[in-house]
Specification:
Length: about 200
Amino acid sequence: MSDDVPAGQPVEPPPGTEEQTGEADPGQIALMAALLELERHIRDGGWDQPPRLFALVHTDELIATEPELATSLGLRGSSDGAPADGLTAIEQDGFSSSDDVFDDLAALEWPPSVFGCALSVERTFLPPSAEDDIPDEPAAAAAFVAQHPERQDVRVLVAVDRAGHQHGVARLVSQPDELLAADNLVPGLVSALTHTLT
């Protein structure tokens, strides 16, 4: 999927979101649009970022409840021609992840005003052939992975909403112009984020 879609522009629906009528699911499109806009925002900050957590709220509701904030952010609602399902991301500046992001998410519960959420994390992966050589001691393992010539650094951004929509994107350091995307890109993260909304 290309990440060159300008903010506020229609996004092509992913495969499988068309109903039998042939129309795309507007909720899935809204989630994808918010995710792509978030990915551009995070990408502008470069690499080596900590995990970042975002609440996703309906743009029309945010405009109605926080008009001054909406104006300062330049938000456009459905009355301005934007999609009625539009979502706005609000970064949770107080979120500070421990070494286990899944434990961090397990302790989180969003209020009803939050319709969805998204999380960005960076990870380093090694090929399966290198896994047997990783030391057992955590500090030694981290150093081994950091210095391995075949390591792959990736940033994953996953979003879910209360309607059951989910989507994820990933970007590799080694392929900065490519954006990988799928509805269930990181199933464990999808599950953990979904749990925060229930």
